[in-house]
Amino acid sequence: MKQNYLASLGLSPALASIVWLIPPLCGGIMLPVFGAISDQCPATFFFFFSSGKRKPFIAGGALTLAASLLVFAWSGDLARSLDGSCRPDRLHSCALARDISVLSILGMNVSVQALQAGVRALMVDVCGVEQQSQVNAWAGRMVNAANVVYYGLASMDLRRLLPFFGDTQLKVNCALCACILLVTGGLTCSISTEETATRPSRWSGIRERFRDVISVLLSPDLLHIQAIQFLTWFAWFPYMMYIRSYLDGFGMKSTPSTTVQYGSLALLFQSVIALLVITLLPPLASRITKRRSAGDNTSTADGNGFDWKTHRNIWAAAQVIFASALLGITLTSSGIVRVILVGLTGTSWAVIQWVPFTFMTVKIRASSTAACYLTYKEDSRNVGAMVGLFNLSIVIPQLVSMLLSSLIFSAMTDLLHGPAGCSRLIFFISSLMSFLGVVLTTRLKFM
């Protein structure tokens, strides 16, 4: 929807490429910055709350993200109010509307990093090691439930159902998202309880703190996890970018005048499967852990009760499913089979929203004796900085895979007989990356 709206504003290809670079760059730069600042944020840093160092970033991120969504959806109206020449029939030539849209996208991506930094660090701060699997599973459930709701709403005529929110589908969607953000952000800040953060005597030792953080992130366990994350997201990003257009190219004729687009159907199926998996699989893993813990000789849980071997095996199996499904998508000629295979990738999507973050947060939370975890005082942990820097293992493969995909489309479109052939090659490469991730995952040992 964002891409179609920007195209209607006459966004040039050069500017469009810059827009697509905004999310990964903000994720790689702003998330570690917000996380590090929140680590040293005292209770009196903002006046919104009496205690807590993560809540200002959650509240501020939610507010600015909601505002950016509204500005994006109403960019044409704002441009018309500032420049009378930006009429509805001439928006494609209105530079002011394009500028407002691009700036609002920048605002979205910066504010979502503040929100994510606060929420992810709060999850580590508040929940113990034995709760990290549960809290990350719940985070995954919320993400996938939101996906299902979004695809359901996208199939409705929201302009008719909620006309007071706006006169276009985009406006109603953005207004709904803004309301949900404000409600959920407010609930999180009012219900969650943080330890009172004391104001540090000075903002010094930043270089030493980051050196300590990086030393832990480069420890064998976390380095191994980040390598798996790199391969996982290297496989997933091109798939997410091109799967819908690839499937829509094989639209099924339901009547002589209508065409059923496979892309929307497949992605809805994927979201439903992901929601079911993230809902049912974590309790099943917990039961397996309890059964193994019942016998001393068969337990694979560490001293904190975290069963790393069960989670590792789930992660490896999910990557096998994703890699196999991608191969099937490139080889089959049946549209229905493609839809089913895309749906099966929801299994892997659910797991990568849960298990890698659980491994990371358990390792950070359990490192209570590490210098990077207890720097100034007991309540001044460097959780935010570590979570932010761990995100680089997601951002870097996104940039690399985008570059590789662009090169394939620009240099091999004619050789591979069109965009569909380029997409097949990209999916094949993604499948190989995922299979390589399986190899690394099976060798993972969590000490």
The succession of helices and strands, N to C, reads: HHHHHHHHHHEEHHHHHHH
N/C terminus separation: 45 Å
Strand segment tally: 2
What's the CATH C level of the largest domain? Answer: Mainly Alpha
Q: Counting H and I runs of at least 4 residues, what is the number of helices?
A: 17
Structural class based on helices, strands and sheet pairing: mainly alpha
The CATH homologous superfamily of the largest domain: MFS general substrate transporter like domains
Integer average pLDDT: 81
Largest sheet data = 2 strands, antiparallel
How is the CATH topology of the largest domain named? Growth Hormone, Chain: A
Helical amount: over 70%
The coarse overall form would be: globular
Tell me which CATH architecture of the largest domain applies here.
Up-down Bundle
Tell me the domain tally: 2
Beta content: under 5%
Low-confidence stretches: 44-50, 252-259, 368-380
Using the CA coordinates, give the radius of gyration. 23 Å
Strand line-up across the major sheet:
1-2
Overview of the structural elements:
It is a single chain. This protein has 447 residues and is mainly α. The chain folds into 2 domains: 1-126 and 157-194, Up-down Bundle (Growth Hormone, Chain: A), CATH 1.20.1250; 204-447, Growth Hormone, Chain: A (Up-down Bundle), CATH 1.20.1250.20. It has 17 helices and 2 strands. The protein has helices at residues 2-8, 13-39, 55-73, 75-82, 95-126, 132-154, 158-161, 169-191, 206-217, 220-248, 262-294, 308-331, 335-352, 355-366, 383-390, 392-412, 419-442; strands at 252-255, 258-260. The protein has a two-stranded antiparallel sheet. A hairpin with a 2-residue loop joins strand 1 (252-255) and strand 2 (258-260). Helix 10 packs antiparallel against helix 11 (262-294). The protein is globular and about 70 Å long. The relative contact order is 0.14. Mean pLDDT is 81; it is low at 44-50, 252-259 and 368-380.
